[in-house]
Amino acid sequence: MNSAPVIRTSEIGAVIFDMDGVVTDTAVVHAAAWKRLFDEFLRSRARPHDAFEPFDVEADYLRYVDGKPRYDGVRSFLASRGIMLSEGAPSDTPNRETICGLGNRKDKYFLMRLREEPAHAYPSTTQAVRDLADRGVRTAIISASRNMSEVLASAGLSELFAVRVDGVMAEQRHLPGKPDPAVFLEAARVLGVEPARAAVVEDALAGVEAGRRGGFALVVGVDRHGQRDALLRRGAHAVVRDVGELRIE
């Protein structure tokens, strides 16, 4: 299915949206926070005559951390550079060089940036959510982030979604991160709809794979980064450049 996707209300009773990069433009804020974290960390470990290879927002972010819980992102990127660290604990302070410590430092940088530059919503996505509601289609929002409430408030969207599954809930309910479909399946459960009657809208490769693995009727990839083919390979039924291309019938 390569044409603009159609959400048929006779077949689809709910649509689950990823937050960062689909509902809000915060994917770029996350990417900047990851780059600051990893560039600092890699420089601190480099020996005087080593060539410094910085974190690449286009390649490393999309391949290793986009859409994943932050500790998984830390683990994945460091493994790509052959670096092993102790796991630590979620209570680790941001200056500790553990998986959790680095993840917490990234979270600190993200919130600092968010306070300086408020999040913005994609107007076409918020309009699609309202159009779906007008037609009786329920919606939910998911994210690996533990900062969903702060991001939605920053973007003026606190009231848009009644059903939310974020990183806090995922930890409380022991839901594994993407590409495992657990967060999408939990959102569908709360919405009271089977995956076979629900759609997923995602921009991350791991998220698209999760939606397809979860058996959702329609998985729409949103191509914000020129990775249409990769989204299709991971399981997207269709890829759009913007949520405004979705048709509701």
Explained architecture:
There is one protein chain. The protein has helices spanning 27-45, 57-65, 70-80, 99-116, 123-134, 148-154, 167-172, 182-191, 205-213, 228-234, and strands at 6-7, 14-18, 138-142, 163-165, 198-202, 218-222, 238-240, 247-248. It is an alpha/beta fold. It has a 6-stranded parallel beta sheet, sandwiched between helices. It has a two-stranded parallel ribbon with strand order 1-8. Strand 6, helix 10 (228-234) and strand 7 (238-240) form a beta-alpha-beta unit. The longest helix is centred in the first third of the chain and has 19 residues, at 27-45. The model has no long low-confidence stretch (mean pLDDT 94).
Average predicted local confidence, pLDDT: 94
Widest sheet: strand order?
Answer: 4-3-2-5-6-7
Q: What is the molecular shape?
A: globular
What is the tally of beta strands? 8
Beta-strand content estimate: 5-15%
Task: Quickly describe the structure.
With 249 residues, this protein is α/β, with parallel strands linked by helices.
Question: What is the topological layout?
Answer:
Blueprint: E1 6-7, E2 14-18, H1 27-45, H2 57-65, H3 70-80, H4 99-116, H5 123-134, E3 138-142, H6 148-154, E4 163-165, H7 167-172, H8 182-191, E5 198-202, H9 205-213, E6 218-222, H10 228-234, E7 238-240, E8 247-248
Parallel strand pairs: 1-8, 2-3, 2-5, 3-4, 5-6, 6-7
Helix pairs in contact: 1-4, 2-3, 3-4
